Amino acid sequence: MPGKDEQLYISNAFALEIDSVAMAFFTEVSGLESTTDHTEVTQQTQKGLPYIIRVPARAANKPGTLTLKTKSVGAAESLWKWRKQIVDGKVKDALRNGSVVIYDTENKEIGRWNFKNAWPSKLSIGSLSATSNDAIDVELSLEYEMLTPA
Questions:
Q1: How many domains does the chain have?
Q2: Residue 92 sits in a domain of what CATH number?
Q3: Tens digits of per-residue pLDDT, 42-72?
């Protein structure tokens, strides 16, 4: 996680911002990563012995998937409207830029990851049971082209 010093940060909450507007708070976020595919190239030493090296593939950045989880059903309504654009085939309209904002226990921003051209590939509502007292789980998967720390 990007930081300005060596201090250990305790993350407490995560917000999803889309086009600079806070959409929802989440209790869990995964997929904050940057990956590059590689290609193996076989070369020879001066003595004619083969050895293999790995070099970055043509595309320097591999697209990824963010997975965000919350217990807030209220968040699901606005996220479903966004997801519906994909379901309705309006992919170009659904592409959004945004951020995952990380807050500490005092609700101060301690980190931010920006993504480009994201779209919701999955939105799921957890099991519903009349005999349960548990909050309902909401999970959102976002496909993104690029992710960078702010």
A1: 1
A2: 2.30.110.20
A3: 999 999 999 999 988 876 778 899 999 988 7
